[in-house]
Amino acid sequence: MPAAIPSPGSSSLDIGSLELRAYGLMIALGVLAAAWLFHRRFTQRGHSPDLASSIAVWAVIAGLVGARIYHVITDWKDYRGKWGEVWQIWEGGLGITGGVIAAAAVIWVYARQKGIPMSEIADSAAPALPLGQAIGRWGNWFNQELFGRPTDLPWALEIDPIPAANAGYPNDDTFHPAFLYECIWNLALAGALLWAAKRFTLKPGRLFGLYVLGYSLGRLWIEFIRVDYASELAGVRVNIWVMLALILGSVAYLLWGRGGDDRGQEDEDAVPEWPEDQEAGDSAPQGLEESDAENISLET
């Protein structure tokens, strides 16, 4: 094999006498990067920095709790007999889908209390989320987890014998680097969303819809190559079903109401037309006063 991506020798970083869990560190860096980009975009919309910071804090707290709950629910068999490990986030196990859902629910309540359109928060967060996810995925590299099927491609990921055997491949040592695939996909998605926000005039909330669609498409094909244990429904990984539902939902949202937001303006600017069974000058069209009809006649 000409080359391979090595796995780190340790899942922690030692700084003197201080030991930092690499997974938790990468999650923290991802959160900081996402919060920074959200803060920048939200304040550019004219909102105060303090409000942006408050939203970010609530979103992070709700997102972490929701991501862990989603992971435990979908992989609950891993915690049978050891429920005390449920909140050991530093050991790995966060479901981004649950994090986004929980954060959205909490921020929706917060936005209603503050009188802020939810779409402004969602569109500001759209590029920030994949940026944070791209960085956080490197925590899986440190933990040697969530890798793909065996491969001998030049960019294959080296996995130690124990995690390889636990995944059901005791005779293989190089696998698809699923974490790297998702990292690259998310970075490209973040860039595409930033470009789309500048290049096009999108209706409120549509940028977030594009994020959901883009992330779900990428995660879908990555789920097909992952070999880690996952709960299944009808013989298919639960996350695949979830991604399919998100793809359908986001497509429906992006297509729903196309042009509907402009109807009010179009109706407002429309010039009144005379009924076909009346001749101009006979009487005023419905909805106009007599004086308005006279003005129209004079102008024409």
Description:
The chain has 300 residues and is mainly alpha-helical. The protein is 58% helix and 5% strand. The protein is built from 12 helices and 6 strands. It has a two-stranded antiparallel sheet with strand order 1-2. A hairpin with a 2-residue loop joins strand 1 (12-15) and strand 2 (18-21). Helix 8 packs antiparallel against helix 9 (206-225). Mean pLDDT is 84; it is low at 259-300.
What is the element layout, followed by pairings?
Blueprint: E1 12-15, E2 18-21, H1 22-44, H2 49-74, H3 96-114, H4 118-125, H5 128-136, H6 138-143, E3 157-158, H7 161-166, E4 174-175, H8 178-199, H9 206-225, E5 232-233, E6 236-237, H10 238-255, H11 263-269, H12 290-299
Antiparallel strand pairs: 1-2, 3-4, 5-6
Helix pairs in contact: 1-2, 1-4, 1-5, 2-3, 5-8, 8-9, 9-10
